[in-house]
Amino acid sequence: MAEYKEIHGTKIRNYTTNPDNPITGEVWYNATDNVLKFQAQNATSAGSWRTGNSLNTGRSTLGTAGIYTAALAFGGVPAPAPPTMSALTESYDGTSWTEVNDLNTARRRLEGAGTTTAALAFGGYDGTAYLAINESWNGSNWTETTDMNNTKAQFASAGIQTSALAFGGLDPTVLALNESWNGSNWTEVGDLNTARYSLAGDGTQTSALAFGGLPPTTGKTESWNGSSWTEEHF
Q: Which of 5, 14, 66, 208 would suit a FRET pair with 196, their CA atoms being 20 to 30 Å apart?
């Protein structure tokens, strides 16, 4: 079997930083970041994935908030089965996860928005019923606040703690419903064009995307302009 050098003409070398002028296809190890990197075509730098410290409690279908150096993980179903609803909340500081105060209501398939010091956890499923419960996080504790107008799980969200959207989902029928949060109350606004669940969302309360989902498997993307959804064709 040919080695890397025979194929590419270079060895994989260790650097304390990235090399000054890497050639296309060159691979190196950055000993400072502890990651293997490569030079892509027509790129000046290359990103990479690395393994971070694990959650203290492994689980699925949980809610999230924050960014990659400061994140929250809450609710979900700990592995392995049978499914038991979790209220656990963990905070990530860019290096490790720390258990903090739990949600008031254990659930899975919920959504979240915000930061590690100002977040929302809304909707979900507690094993017997779909929920409209909305909780607010102040960096230390969860407090139940104004519920959503509609119970739902497996939906998508966008925005922050004081300005959020919740769209699509199950109740248990497939939903196109969209609700907007102003920091105090939820208001029903323009529905998705295609009802779906297990979809993804991104953006803000006035400029968002909804993409993917079931049923059937769809790659449809819709954009939100603050008042209505438009199907995008790429």
A: 66
Q: Give the domain extent around 5.
A: 1-51
Is the domain of 47 the same as that of 134?
no
CA gap 203, 110 in Å, rounded: 18
- Cα distances (Å, whole numbers) of residue 158 to 29, 164, 200, 223: 36, 6, 9, 12
Alpha-carbon gap, residue 170 to 29, rounded angstroms? 46
What digits encode the pLDDT tens for the residues 150-174?
999 999 999 999 999 999 999 999 9
Cα(165)–Cα(14) distance, integer angstroms: 46
pTM of the entire predicted model: 0.79
In this structure, the answer to whether residues 117 and 181 fall within a common structural domain is yes
Q: What is the pLDDT of residue 117?
A: 96
Low-confidence ranges of the chain (pLDDT < 70): 1-12, 23-25, 34-47, 81, 217, 234
Indicate if 131 and 206 belong to the same structural domain: yes
Total residue count of the chain as it appears in this document: 234
Tokens of 217: 């498997």
CATH of the domain at 115: 2.120.10.80
DSSP code, position 172 = S
State both tokens at 183: 């920091």
| pLDDT for position 159 | 96
104/133 Cα distance (integer angstroms): 10
Same domain assignment for residues 120 and 24: no
